[in-house]
Amino acid sequence: MSEHVSKAAEGGTGQDGRVEPTRVRALWHLLEPLHAVLYYAPEVFEEASALGYGTEDRWPAYFPFRAAPLGAVGGERVASAFYSFAPRMVAEHSDRAWTVAGPEAVLRARLSGIDRTYRSILGDRVDSPELAEAAALARRAAQAANTAGRPLAAANAELPWPDAPHLQLWQAATILREHRGDGHLAALLVAGLDPVESLVSFAAIGAASVERFESRGWSPEEWTAARERLTARGLVDASGTATDAGRELRREVERHTDRLAAAPWQSLGLPAVDRLTALLGDYWVAVLSTGLLPAESTLGIGKV
To answer: Which residues pair with 13 in a beta bridge?
Structure first.
């Protein structure tokens, strides 16, 4: 594991034996690549292309593949659940997505794509007892996640569990990351950060470059207007850099997110969390070693 993730994963235990926020965040760091490879793997793009989605970039497949558990919903509901994407970008891809393929076909395709991807990356390890053990532990955590008020987590949790352990691991990682993500949106709302302000304030602390955040579809005028609103609140300066108050607000957003994401791990229990952490390291390294995932992410992993 990287030094950043391994140190956090090894620590983060309170005196009462509870899993502390730094550990909760490190577990997300370990699981996120196992989920996110869905949006970058060539095998998944092949499945998307076979359905009829464009693969010139990742967005035509990203929106239906992530939103399919919600059903054939329109752009407004997808934008609400995804939050930080510009609504017109969401509408461009979502409003026609279900004319290409229905949600059930997309769900089958994404599972087939992940099956092929994991087999390509992990080889014989997909059939190992260690992966089966990791899948069982991750599934226990995912099934302990309270999905009330968390639409993406709930939609994924409602899907039937696949039989193969490596697919169970991916589904558990997906439920847990969407559970955390839904909670993160609640933390942003409490902080008073609208969708574009959430990105501007995140860029302002150096979580990722402005250019990386431009992939979310906001216009220069919308970005500037959001920066001006944050400047009026004393959260960023005229250059777009976070003030002390802005940095503290973002720290509180992350702390709040960690607290809201903690329950599945508390339910799993510390010995099982330790064991899962040890098991996931090799798979985390294997996925990152493919080079499929971008070095810089809008999620700010390793930066916050």
So the answer is: 19
Q: Please give the model's pTM, rounded to 2 decimal places.
A: 0.93
Distances (CA, A) of 60 to 56, 65, 174, 211, 274: 8, 9, 20, 20, 38
Query: What CA–CA distance (Å, rounded) separates 267 from 264?
Result: 5
Domain range annotation of the chain = 3-189+254-289
Minimal CA–CA distance to 26: which of 230, 268, 274? 274
Name the token pair of 56. 């010139």
Residue 265: count other Cβ atoms within 10 Å of its Cβ: 24
How are the residues of the chain apportioned to helix, strand and coil, as percentages rounded to the nearest 5?
A: 70, 0, 30
> pLDDT band at residue 207, thresholds of 50, 70 and 90?
confident
Asked if residue 138 lies in contact with residue 31, where contact means CB atoms within 8 angstroms, the answer is yes
In three-state secondary structure terms, 162 is coil
Q: Which residue has the tokens 């620590």?
A: 11
User: Tokens in use for 290?
Assistant: 């493919």
The 10s digit of each residue's pLDDT in 238-266 is 899 999 999 999 999 999 999 999 999 99
| Cβ–Cβ < 8 Å for 209, 246 | no
What lies within 8 Å, CB to CB, of 196 at 6+ separation is 84, 86, 218, 222, 223, 225, 226
Q: Indicate the pLDDT class of residue 208, thresholds 50, 70 and 90.
A: confident
CB atoms within 10 A of CB 192: 11
Q: Rounded to an integer, what distance in angstroms lies between the CA atom of residue 230 and that of residue 224?
A: 10
Closest CA to 173 of 122, 137, 145, 138: 138
Q: Please state, as a whole number, how many other Cβ atoms lie within 10 Å of the Cβ of residue 37.
A: 23
Q: Considering Cα of 42, then 47, then 49, then 53, what sign does the dihedral take?
A: negative
